[in-house]
């Protein structure tokens, strides 16, 4: 199933923000920053990626429910994708 690109813009923004945070973490490690600061930023990146994944699955579920015959993707498949993020 291809997801609606307009609906996925918020996911793209979230992932781009996480990408920037990840670059910041790399710089922090290279600069010898404190462990607590690094781990705090890692937690933020992890949460952002998790939320992007959940938002993607939610969009897929909405599309699946709106047109269940499109691409042959069913709710069970979307549920399996959702649980893979846990």
TrEMBL record:
Coiled coil: none
GO biological process, one term: negative regulation of DNA-templated transcription
Matches recorded under InterPro entries: Metal_Tscrpt_repr, Metal_Tscrpt_repr_sf
GO molecular function: DNA binding; metal ion binding
Database matches in CDD domains: CsoR-like_DUF156 (cd10148)
Protein name (record): Repressor CsoR of the copZA operon
């Amino acid at each position: 199933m291809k997801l609606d690109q307009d609906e996925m813009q918020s996911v793209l923004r979230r992932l781009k923000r996480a990408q920037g945070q990840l670059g910041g973490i790399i710089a922090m490690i290279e600069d010898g920053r404190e462990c607590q600061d690094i781990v705090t930023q890692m937690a933020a990146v992890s949460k952002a990626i998790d939320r992007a994944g959940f938002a993607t699955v939610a969009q897929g579920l909405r599309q699946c429910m709106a047109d269940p015959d499109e691409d042959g993707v069913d709710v069970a498949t979307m549920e399996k994708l959702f649980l893979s993020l846990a």
